[in-house]
Amino acid sequence: MIDRQVRLGKGGFTLVELLVYLMIAVVVLAGIYQLLIGQNRLWMKQRELQDVRTSLRAAGSLLAFELRQASAASGDLYAIASDSVALRSVQALGFVCGEHGNQPRYGLWGTSGEFFTTPLDSALVFAAGNVGSGDDAWRVVAQTNVWDPAGGGVTACAWGDTAVGRGKGTLDSAGPDPSGRGRPDLVVEVAGNADGVYIGAPYRAFRPVTYGIFREDDRWWLGRRIAVGPYEILTGPLRSPADSGLFFTYYDQFGNPTTDPTLVQVVDIILRGESLGKVPRANQAPDFQQDTLTLRVSLRG
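Predicted structure:
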């Protein structure tokens, strides 16, 4: 009898103690669960917000780059509106280093970008006039064909004594040109008035491009379209135009707002983006994350 009482006295927890421990465990686990939910909401919020800011920075950098290359006085802006801008978008650059003997073809050196030959592709090439006469001008020509130097018939640069790039040879599969003049990177054929274009003239290939906000799948996006074609998505989503998802303000040289594309000197840009997905919120319905980017861009003179 004594041994049985001793064994019974060494028993485990009582039912009341187990219930108390269970309640404590439930409270602790519930607190941990709520903490994890809160951390997950915060992580989702930061992730979506970071995506929004990345999209806005990309959009702002692209629009600023395009506008900085444009000159309103030279006709680089075709049309301006509060939610879009149409301009000459530079696709490629180079310098005239040689000319075909009897064809409107030029060898280009120091090229970068892509040279296209669709009916929409044109170029600005600088024509130097007479000394001191003030007749220098950018010629607008159509870009009709592109070849390698052998195919285009301009196999060597012909830098003159006063050319900007004199003496700068280039390397190709055959090695440097022994004459020191260098070889063109490519040859372009143009159509239009190219009178007065000399060796060393800068050459800028461009396309007419419109940047604007457009709607697709019930969301708003920053888009680009060539000429009058459809918009292609660049980045987004953005807020609606009514909520200044994309908003341009144009100013002339005196700081006055203007609607004349030829007078624009400065452009203010507002971009308001929102996240692709909604983020859960405590005791509230899920919602999009939003952020705003504003910048001011000065055009090329």
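Summary: The longest strand covers residues 84-99.
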